[in-house]
Design goal:
alpha+beta, 5 helices, globular, Pnp Oxidase, Chain A
């Protein structure tokens, strides 16, 4: 159903229909959220890509619980997922990397150059460092832009998914929750 809603957002011409806010928390329960692009949505979960170490990958290594929100205001829809996330093996990342837009490949190489020795949680760099590293990557021959060692793939496997639809002046919004249990998925309406 989520993939279908993304397809409808694409058909409606909405910007970044596969953008989602990913929320993680570190071992102390401190939450972090950021918007990322989902590259695959299927029965096995939602897949995204990142570099390591980043706040999201450090959080997930300490605490695999995560949540994500897809929001399409133009369609009056929202989907909230909760579950566990984990990094996939290097083969999954190698297969996905060539499909990424050039800008994201260059950014991955900028991360590769800048992250060694950076201290969490801030990952602070000097002003202009990201731009310089990005430009240096852009100056490399395309054949050298293979997957950097720090690039990784993460899958969020949901065990609870809420599908929310906006209402109208005389029509209430509605939300349907899907929960994965021992007998498979069950669904029921919940308060919006």
């Amino acid at each position: 159903m989520l993939a279908g809603w993304i397809d409808e957002a694409v058909a409606a011409g909405l910007p970044a229909p596969n953008a989602m806010t990913l929320a993680t928390a570190d071992a102390d329960g401190i939450p972090h959220a950021r918007t990322v692009l989902a590259t695959t949505v299927d029965a096995t979960g939602v897949v995204l890509h990142s570099s390591t170490p980043t706040t999201k990958t450090r959080d997930l290594a300490q605490n695999p619980h995560a949540a994500a929100v897809f929001h399409w205001p133009g369609l009056g829809r929202q989907v909230v997922l909760q579950g566990r996330a984990h990094e996939l093996d290097a083969a999954a990342s190698r297969a996905a990397y060539p499909t990424r837009p050039l800008q994201l490949k260059l950014l991955a190489w900028a991360y590769e150059e800048l992250t060694p020795g950076l201290a969490a949680p801030d990952f602070a760099v000097e002003t202009g460092a990201v731009e310089r590293a990005f430009d240096a990557a852009a100056a490399r021959p395309p054949a050298e832009l293979t997957m950097p060692p720090s690039w990784t793939t993460v899958r969020l496997v949901a065990d609870r998914v809420d599908f929310w639809r906006a209402g109208a002046e005389l029509v209430p919004p509605n939300k349907t929750r899907f929960v994965l249990g021992a007998g498979g998925w069950r669904s029921f309406p919940v308060l919006p």
